[in-house]
Amino acid sequence: MKTHALPEVYCYLNGEYTPLAEAKISVMDRGFIFGDGAYEMLPVYGRRLFRFEAHMDRFERSLAKLRIISPLLRAEWLEIARKLISKVDAEDQAVYLQVSRGVAPRNHVMPTGIQPTLFAYSSAAKPISAEERHHGVSCVSARDFRWERGDIKSTSLLGNVLARQISADQGAMETILLRDGFLTEASASNVWIVKEGALLGPPKSEQVLEGIRVELLKELCEEVGIGYNLRPISEAELFAADEVILSSATKEVLPVTTLDHQAVGHGALRGKPGPVYARLYEAYQRAKLLQSI
Question: Which residues, at least 6 apart from 1, have a Cβ–Cβ distance to it below 8 Å?
Fold first, then answer.
């Protein structure tokens, strides 16, 4: 049976630093049995964490919604992250943090008084290629069949896995999801459209993860003079958009130039990255220098 090699990095597991391939948890951990936990992914540029406070705000919100008491102070997470970063031979990295409810006999009811399982590691970032940025990427659309608590960054990601596989099977970058005729997000990205020069995204709700780039892109739009609004976006608006843009910790901002095998946009820019994307990408690179610790 084919196996995939794990990164040769150290991880943090319940107070100990150990090679990732040697880390072990109980098979009765609720993170393993139920996906009962929360996680966060923090980008690292030049060995510095990008928008650490915003990422930790979301991590703590997710834990609170799962009724898991945050087991460490924020300063302790920062110390762990920096130690893991120091052990990786790459300037740009991605730090993964996870807390599960802990080990207990299998029962759907949340047990009390158990110790959460803490896990973290960092690995070299896998940047988007220059070709993908120059030409844009393709996406497909699908019905959003996931559970309705998309606002929790939960380790229960089977719905997202199934959604992402739809695009992987077609050689596409992402699966853009629609619920009841309106845009929600993609399997592992937030989704934006451009209409008449303004950046538009779905409103905050329990069905959509509040991506860190939601607030960041608002700031960048204000900086460069681009209109910005969060409101319901219909399926028709998505397919008629001047530009479609993905955002995530690993993609930063990324232009979608083909959706369901049809070119995105209009006129001379049809099927090409648009001017709003270009301005936001440049502003994003400036923010990386100013907003990392």
Answer: none
